[in-house]
Design brief:
Tetracycline Repressor, domain 2; mainly alpha; about 200 residues; about 75% helix
């Protein structure tokens, strides 16, 4: 029986999600279609049917992963009924919690930081990551563009730099030393401490 378009799309999605976990666990060279198929619950042939090139599979896995995981973080930044400091702290806390608690997101960090550089060309996948982080930056900048509440000596671009450096640092930690990631309980306190170091409107907590 011929598969429906919906069934084919569902299989492709399972393969893409499984690929992130396999690439993270085995690395670029050792990850095989057999291992990805086994993780996805399909045959090697099914994986090859959807992706005849392993590089393209890695590229789509990275791209889809960043699109999927960006949405919750963006919702924290977009919550207009909370003060800017609370929105930024909520965003950083959620990002930390996702890295420590969500196996798929942590695997995405490993693949983005360690595996992708080993591949010949995964440009579109990494461009998707850049697009998502650019969207985060576009939501962070307006929170402080007036300069109100920013600690003396800092400008809004300085706040953005510090926040993005923090995100890159914890992502690299998730990829290289995941045992060092904080507990979900500590993540909120860490996020608040980071934001408190940048902002002076502590009454908004």
């Amino acid at each position: 029986m011929k598969r429906t378009a919906e069934e084919a799309a569902a299989t492709r999605a399972r393969v893409v999600e499984a690929a992130i976990l396999v690439f993270a666990g085995m690395g670029w060279k050792e990850a095989t279609y057999e291992a990805i198929g086994a993780r996805a619950g399909v045959t090697r042939g099914a994986v090859h049917h959807h992706f005849r090139d392993k590089t393209r599979l890695l590229e789509e896995a990275i791209s889809a992963g960043w699109r999927r995981h960006a949405a919750p973080a963006l919702s924290e930044l977009s919550c207009m009924d909370r003060p800017p400091v609370q929105r930024l702290a909520g965003f950083l806390s959620l990002y930390l919690c996702l890295l420590s608690q969500d196996e798929s997101f942590r695997a995405l960090a490993v693949v983005s930081v360690l595996v992708a550089p080993q591949a010949v060309d995964v440009g579109e996948g990494m461009r998707e990551k850049t697009r998502e982080t650019d969207e985060w930056a576009a939501l962070i900048i307006p929170l402080f563009e007036s300069g109100a509440g920013v600690r003396a000596g800092l400008r809004p671009p300085d706040v953005l730099f510090a926040v993005m450096a923090f995100l890159r640092g914890v992502t690299a930690t998730a990829a290289t030393a995941p045992q060092d990631l904080p507990t979900p309980e500590a993540s909120a306190s860490i996020a608040r401490a980071v934001v408190a170091g940048l902002m002076q409107d502590e009454e908004e907590w």
